[in-house]
Amino acid sequence: MLGPVLLAAARSEHIRRLVAGMPLTRPVVDRFVAGERLDESLAAVRSLTDRGLLVTLDHLGEDVTDRTEALRARDAYLALAEVLRQEALGDRVEMSVKLSAFGQALPGGEDIALRNALPVVEAAAQAGTTVTLDMEDHTTVDSTLAILGELRARFPATGAVLQSYLYRTEDDCRSLAGEGSRVRLVKGAYREPASVAFQDKRDVDLAFVRCLKILMAGQGYPMIGSHDPRLVAITEELARQTGRKPGSYEFQMLYGIREAEQRRLAAAGHRMRVYVPYGTDWYGYFMRRLAERPANLAFFLRSLAGR
Ligand code: FAD
């Protein structure tokens, strides 16, 4: 099983330096990452919004090891929010944030991450948009949901991500299915032990459907973060059954993955949001994309071999 190996490598500083130093890595990374700089990523954003797609922008970064780095991550998001305000993009573009980039794993990290997230969420509101808190490994879920609660007390539209591979997630879906809640449901991208997460893909998919039913039947705004054609079809069917109109939920997919399907859903009248990562700290994100699909790894290795 290559996936777990790649997910372990995603956390290795040694392998990060090795992969980042390979001259042919860049073209493969470019398939999943919109650019290193904000202005480069804005070109990608424009080409998506011009085609009727919505966007969530992620300034790449995670697992910071000191407060200065966390402040730098916060400032990158403040700069992004200011650009969204100036360019009047707030109705089409929101922001996705990883709290580990804001210092969540440092001593006293929950307070630090909350203090860094608050001004970002505030700046997003001033730009007419929202922030969604990405979900990282299972050790962060309680802390992330606690920070979400604090942020939602002042900015109720702040969104969360729930991962169907965790046993706890059905309960979390019930807690977050109320009015005004925005939840992105995903399968989950980290390497998790059997003590907390389903290991079998089929169980993860079945759990996704159970969670989806809870969210679609609830009063909140479900965001379906999956490229899985069966889950897209089940969402459409559940929308019919629950009487949800297209504007009351949305599909989300990652930049560079199943682009024709993204355009098809938008053309069919669905709200379709593309998760667009940008920045220099692409390693962890890139390795998780390789782990999800062996064909990506083969593509990467072929490019390294110069074919
Ligand atoms: P899969 O069964 O993995 O894939 C279904 C099909 O989609 C595949 O057959 C293939 O055709 C295509 N596909 C899927 N992945 C790839 C890929 N990497 N490259 C090429 N084709 C692919 N996970 C988290 O843990 N936390 C988060 O905060 C988070 N945010 C996300 C935000 C969005 C918008 C999306 C779409 C995903 C996010 N994820 C997050 C990742 C998610 O957990 C899954 O790892 C990822 O979406 C793959 O699962 P899938 O539902 O697409 O289904």
From TrEMBL:
Reaction(s) catalyzed by this protein? L-proline + a quinone = (S)-1-pyrroline-5-carboxylate + a quinol + H(+)
Q: Where is the signal peptide?
A: none
Which cofactors, by name? FAD
Task: Offer one Pfam family short name for this entry.
Answer: Pro_dh
Main EC class the enzyme belongs to: oxidoreductase
According to the entry, every stretch annotated as the Proline dehydrogenase domain falls at 43-299
Protein's name according to its UniProt entry = proline dehydrogenase
Organism lineage string:
Bacteria, Bacillati, Actinomycetota, Actinomycetes, Kitasatosporales
